[in-house]
Amino acid sequence: MTDASRLVEDLCAAREALAEVPPDALLRVLREWADRWREPGREVGGDDLDRLSASTGWPRPHLVEALRRAFRPWTPAAIERSVRRAYDTRGAVPFARRDLWLLVLLAGRIPALATGVAFRALAAGVPVVLKPSSAEPVFCDLLARSARRHSDLLGGAVRVVTDPGTVASLLPEAPACLAYGRDETVARVREIRDGRPTWCGGHRESLVVVFREALGSESGAEAVAGGVARDCAIYDQSGCLSPHLALVEEGGGVPPRAFARMVFAHLQALERRWPPAVPAVEEAAALRLFAEESRILAALRGGRVFPGRGPARPLVVLMPDGVYRPGPGYRVLQVLTFRGETDFGRRAPSLAGRLQGLAAAGPRARLNATLRGAPGSMAPYVCRPGRLQSPPADWLENGLDLTAGLVHVGGGARDRSRVTASCRP
Amino acid sequence: MTVDDSLARQVREVIESGSPLDEDAFAALCLAVAEAQGLLRPDAPARGLDAIEPLPEAAFKLMTVAHFPPSEAQAVFHTSGTTRGTPGRHLVRDASLYRVSVLRGFERFAMYPPRPGRFVSLVPAASERPHSSLSSMISYVLETYPEVPPSRVRDGDRLDVATIRDALESAVRAREPVLLLGTTLDFLTFFEAVGSWGVRLPPGSRAMHTGGAKASGRAVDREDLWRTFARVLGIPAEDVIEEYGMTELLSQAYDSPRVSPGPRRLVPVPWMRTRVLDPLTFHEVAQGERGLLCHYDLANVWTAVAILTGDLATRVEDGFAEVERAPGASPRGCSHEAAR
Fold first, then answer.
1. Is residue A424, in this structure, part of any structural domain at all?
2. Which A residues 302-361 touch B at CB under 8 Å?
């Protein structure tokens, strides 16, 4: 028997076990598990935190914040909502497919990606096999160990696979699959899956829009700037909910230039609170080239870069008449300005189908009016600045309701299943 | 202080002498040029090369870099990389300065004894590519050194493989060492085209390739390339010279094992210093570590004496090795130009 077939057997057994557990018992197990991670240092020891810090590149304070954010959405109420929703919608054939499990190909190094998938799947009674990204393989291992320590039920239902041969065996056969990664990677996964239930999360971006009403006072602008800076700084801008661009409306009490300077000051302060990872030399080179080119462009075109010389990060690039250029990450924010709703549509980059999150500061009515004129800026997740990287447990990542999708497949559907939600603000 | 003829004269004297400058003398002249160009850091803590704020190579794409009226440029070289569809431009005030820089460097690194008298260039002529700094460089060389007139071995963008073979076989019959010049991609194309054909060129023959496979979409293993030169042409690895140049520079670096023994590496000409910088701190990295290349080229007296490139490389002894384009830098290189 191969490792893959042994694992599949175990997963089917885990699915059987989940099918036998009453919803209240599942609720209790999940709540207790999430509770153990409220203080990450209690659930994993110092050595493991050091290992994870080395693997993610994030110094301890940044890492601990990342771990907190991975579990914070999974409050008792959120877990209850998820489980109840899954059970309520299972109808007459809640566990028609006793062989259902979910293969998850993870990307990047943000722990919240793995926890989000794990809780959603478990709430739907579906075991998960996590294939960590090569960039960060440690967290999944700690999560699975924690699940085993916590209960047999979770231990059997949260598995990790790293061996490429085993992954290659599982990929075409998994009853359901969720793949993150570059567009080419997820396209290849779709091809291999050949019509089996598969959800994909390719390249996505997020942006910030600040209406002039939010810049009426220094204190109001400071609060918004602080939120934008936090959204940028956490995870070193490596997530799909990390904003790389802020569109700031002219005409408020605080001009865009002053606002950009405020964001930079907050980013500087966050260097101490959430120290950044040290980028690889290639990433550092990309940062440096971006910074220097931005400084030249700003000098030529009436823009401004904070800081004007020297460090390559953190960096805020204000280009009143510029265009958005794909940024290097690691806390580099571009600020473009606009004048009114019509102008927003002209200035916002074309991100239709690629926008994951939109953080908006200002009146809701202004946002609605603006998005009506720029449907490409509709995002699955809309929030206030500072909340981009703290989505609620039931947010529709990639526009996908994973729990509903798994319930659908678990109820007997074997077709390609795409359970998506509309992206209305 | 502004750039003037007297400063340019000082630079020319250094280049024409061909002698290495000691660190202090180089830094003093480089700082004088940088000051005239407005490239000194306002908050510079030291007076060495650290006091100079290098100009990113992207500046040549985004603006006109010249400390003279652009209409007085004797040559305009275009980069092959095309960010936003616009090539970078290097305006050359004094083409004779480029010529002397090219010839002094070439003499030093490529014309070691026994001197070849026959040259075969795979590079398009300057008359065909007036905006190519490489074509101008090779044209200067071909005007100066060959004892036998070089054959025309290009038909537009296409290499005339039969003529190259004839020229090489003629050198074998005459028992005269030959020097082949071309981009790395040109040589790969030639080797593929000749199939099993091969000659043993007379001792002292050598090849100078440039551009690596930067952006040509091909991965070039240097050791494979050296083996192929030996197999097809009988040129040993020690006589396979690599030249590193940029449109934005008027000086070059060479990997020429007979001149710079030791580990293979690119060594700049004496009037250019190259430092490998940590991209974040701008401090020079330790030996063996990688960083961004920053060139301090005195011959750039009329444009920018210090240029921060988009090339990543490893610092090795008195030079650098393992050059590759940094992510985020626009693809370019002589091979890229030839591949287009």
1. no
2. 309, 311-313, 328
**Res A202 pLDDT > 60:** yes
Pairing of strands A198-201, A176-180: parallel
Q: Are A214 and A228 in contact (CB under 8 A)?
A: no
CA of A293: which chain B residue's CA is closest? B58
Residues A47 and A157 in one domain: yes
Alpha helices in A302-379, H assignment, sequence order: 340-347, 364-373
SS3 label, residue A387: coil
- Interior/surface letters B140-168, b for 16+ CB within 10 angstroms, e for the rest: bbbeebbebebbebbeeeebbbeebbebb
Count contacts between A and B (CB, < 8 Å).
62
As a whole number of angstroms, the distance between CA A302 and CA A295 comes to 10
Determine the Cα–Cα distance for residues B140 and B100; give it in Å rounded to an integer. Answer: 9
Tabulate helix, strand, coil % of chain A (nearest 5): 50, 15, 35
> Burial, A92: exposed, middle or buried (Cβ in 10 Å; 0-12, 13-18, 19+)?
exposed
pLDDT in tens, B131-142: 999 999 999 999
Q: Is B85 left (phi over 0), alpha (psi -120 to 50) or beta?
A: left
Q: Do both A312 and A402 map to the same domain?
A: no
- pLDDT confidence band for B216 (50 / 70 / 90): low
Give chain A's count of helices (H) and strands (E): 17, 12
- Asked if the ipTM is above 0.85, the reply is yes
Kindly tell me the sign of the dihedral angle through the C-alpha atoms of A235, A241, A246, A249. negative
User: How far apart, in whole angstroms, are the C-alpha atoms of residue A392 and residue A356?
Assistant: 14
pLDDT at B30 over 50: yes
Nearest to A312 among B41, B62, B280 (CB): B280
Cβ contact, residue pair B327, A282, below 8 Å: yes
Of 3.30.470.20, 3.40.1160.10, 3.40.50.980, 1.20.1300.10, which CATH number belongs to B96-267? 3.40.50.980
* Domain match, A302 and A344 both: yes
A355-361 and A381-383 strand pairing? parallel
| For range B245-269, the mean pLDDT | 97
The pair of structure tokens assigned to A316 is 């805020």
Candidates B2, B1, B7, B206; CA nearest to B94 is B7
Render pLDDT for B220-233 as a digit per residue (tens, 0 to 9). Answer: 789 999 999 999 99
Q: Which residue has the higher pLDDT, B1 or B67?
A: B67
The number of distinct structural domains making up chain A is 2
Residue B236 pLDDT greater than 90, yes or no: yes
> Whose structure tokens read 């998938």?
A117
Higher per-residue pLDDT: A358 or B213: A358
- Give the max Cα distance, chain A: 70
CA distance A303 to chain B (A): 14
Cα B179 to Cα B167: distance, rounded to the nearest angstrom: 11
Contact criterion met (CB below 8 Å) for B190 and B122 = yes
Place of tokens 């700084």: A233
**CA–CA dist B315, B313 (Å, integer):** 7
Confidence of residue B271 (pLDDT cuts 50, 70, 90): very high
| Alpha carbon distance B16, A65 (integer Å) | 61
- Report pLDDT digits (tens) over A172-184: 999 999 999 988 9
Q: Are A371 and A356 spatial neighbours (Cβ–Cβ below 8 Å)?
A: no
Tokens 């090539």 — which residue? B87
Chain B contact set for A279 (CB, 8 A) = 280
B299-313: pLDDT as tens digits: 999 999 999 999 999
Does the pLDDT value for residue B84 go beyond 70? no
Domain that holds residue A270: 205-383
Q: Say which range, A125-134, A344-353, B238-247, has the weakest mean pLDDT.
A: A344-353
d(CA A341, CA A343): 5
